[in-house]
Specification:
The complex is a heterodimer of chains A (199) and B (311). By secondary structure, chain A is mainly α. In chain A, 61% of the residues lie in helices and 0% in strands. Chain A has twelve helices and no strands. Chain B is an alpha/beta fold and 311 residues long. The chains are: A mainly alpha (199), B alpha/beta (311). Chains A and B meet through α7, α8, α9, α10 and α11 of A and α2, α3, α5 and α9 of B.
């Protein structure tokens, strides 16, 4: 089976890429008949480089590099509108998340450093605290991204008034809350990483 | 009635008013909320970006802890609600799935069976408590208040085996708001995404989507937007000054949680509902519907609720 797939690999296409995406949670991929209902309803499509319909087709074709470097999956706001409306029951939003996870794993999506930085920071905080502390996520994600120093300063300065409002309205304490049995949460992360390495 | 309560990370920080108002409203109807002990983050939409299995295994720990309490889990945050519901449905689907999740939980001493239901407060209030019981407790009918209801994406999507409302045109929050005596204006962006999840890594898209919602609500002549999601609230309320600046449009529209609105109609003092935590001032509304000392409007509101339930 694997061999015959390898033989069909042409022009740098990776015929196994679709299985990689399905394995990462992208169910229903092969059922897509390209009607474009997903793209028609997508609220953020105008900011994407490829439309959701195109992304699905590119995955099926095995255009691995192009898909992993696309900005579209990181612009997707995970609103699930496409997935809900899909007449073929393709899990489009889950496919977008699957692409993000593969892209972060190989860290080769040059155009999406902010997106990568955000998700990596999120998991780092949950690993360490068991719960999310939103101000910390914002700071971490901004500093981790490969944006220029100037951009970071501009972004953070712009966020200062919001931070002041939060403090003024006593929205949160300055001390993050932590899960008492944090070792349980960390154990889950480690188990998952071990299981996925095997699969 | 007793429920397991999963507040989630947002409800103990940026949307603490959603937490306190939910607790107040449930208490008013003698519905007990027992917080799941030592719960952890559900993974939101970010855990899936590390791994699919992780996005199931993180909420599985919470679900397993709720199974010890053996009662329905209530999760007000739509993202938490979806994640908990998703792992429940995944575990129920097959023995292989259940074993896979339990393998991920190995070493924590916890096991998940998928035997407790996961529900949203809207679902509980409409389908378990019922609008008539809600109407009976109304002390300050919100007559004359014009609002739009904004559901966001996650409450009724994605389509699992269990949904409590229409996916394209949800009505639960409308029916509750009407029961309280307020009027609900037509609104086409009820389930249009607010852009919240991409707020940090793609601010441009996020602000545009939020502005579309605010603009339509303003044009509909609403006095407030009623919401049920911490991230929608953050995008529309806390980010509103930023949106106003970017688009040069003075919106100034209070964004209120449906639990706060219910609490207001029940005559619960505003400070116990967290109205002071809202960034966009809602005192114009709370001042108008302050609890009155005597006088009871019971009969009138019950009659109104009946006409709505049949509608």
């Amino acid at each position: 089976m694997e061999d015959s797939y390898n033989k069909t690999a042409i022009n740098g296409l990776d015929p196994k890429f679709k299985f990689e995406v399905i394995q990462a949670g992208g169910e229903g991929l092969s059922a897509c008949y390209q009607c474009g209902t997903c793209t028609g309803g997508c609220p953020s499509v105008e900011d994407m480089d490829y439309t959701p319909r195109q992304i699905i087709r590119m995955v099926s074709f095995g255009m691995r590099e192009k898909v992993l470097n696309a900005t579209a999956p990181f612009i997707c706001a995970s609103c699930y509108l496409c997935q809900m409306r899909c007449p073929r029951d393709v899990k489009i939003t889950d496919i977008m998340a699957a692409i993000k996870s593969i892209s972060i794993k190989y860290s080769n999506s040059s155009g999406n450093t902010r997106g990568q930085a955000f998700y990596t920071s999120f998991n780092e905080i949950v690993y360490n605290l068991g719960r999310l502390f939103e101000p910390m996520l914002m700071l971490k994600a901004t500093f981790r991204s490969k944006e220029s120093f100037g951009y970071k300063i501009k972004y953070l300065t712009k966020s200062v008034p919001l931070g002041i409002e939060f403090i003024k309205h006593r929205k949160f304490s300055m001390k993050p809350k932590k899960v008492e049995s944090i070792e349980e949460v960390q154990k889950i992360y480690e188990n998952v990483r071990k299981m996925e390495a095997k699969e | 009635m007793k429920y397991s309560y999963y507040p989630g990370c947002s409800l103990e920080s940026t949307s603490v008013e959603y937490d306190i108002s939910t607790r107040e409203v449930f208490k008013a109807f003698d519905l007990t909320l027992e917080e799941i002990p030592d719960w952890n983050c559900c993974g939101a939409s970010s855990a899936h970006s590390e791994s699919y299995l992780l996005s199931l295994a993180l909420p599985a720990r919470d679900l397993a802890k709720a199974e010890d309490i053996e009662s329905t889990v209530v999760a007000p945050c739509p993202s938490c609600y979806q994640n908990l519901k998703r792992v429940k449905e995944y575990v129920e689907k097959s023995i292989e799935n259940r074993d896979r999740i339990n393998k991920a939980l190995e070493g924590t001493g916890l096991k998940v069976e998928g035997k407790v239901a996961v529900k949203h407060p809207l679902d509980i209030l409409i389908n378990e408590l019922g609008l008539e019981k809600l109407a009976e407790k109304i002390k300050v009918p919100l007559e004359g208040l014009r609002v739009v209801t904004y559901y966001g994406c996650m409450i009724i999507r994605p389509d699992g085996s269990y949904t409590f409302d229409d996916m394209e045109n949800p009505m639960t929050m409308d029916r509750i708001t009407l029961t309280l005596g307020a009027s609900v204006l037509p609104f086409t962006r009820k389930t249009r995404c607010c852009g919240g999840p991409v707020m940090v890594n793609n601010e441009e898209t996020a602000l545009r989507l939020s502005y579309d919602i605010l603009k339509e609500a303003k044009e509909a002549d609403a006095q407030a937007i009623i919401v049920a999601c911490p991230l929608c609230h953050l995008s529309l309320d806390a980010k509103q000054p930023l949106i106003e600046k970017k688009y040069g449009d003075k919106v100034n529209l209070p964004i209120i949680y449906f639990t706060q609105l219910i609490g207001l109609a029940l005559g619960i003092p505003e400070e116990r509902l967290g109205f002071d935590k809202l960034i966009i001032d809602a005192s114009g509304i709370t001042a108008k519907y302050k609890p009155k000392k005597k006088k009871s409007n019971k009969k009138k509101t019950t009659a109104k609720a009946k006409s709505i339930t049949t509608h």
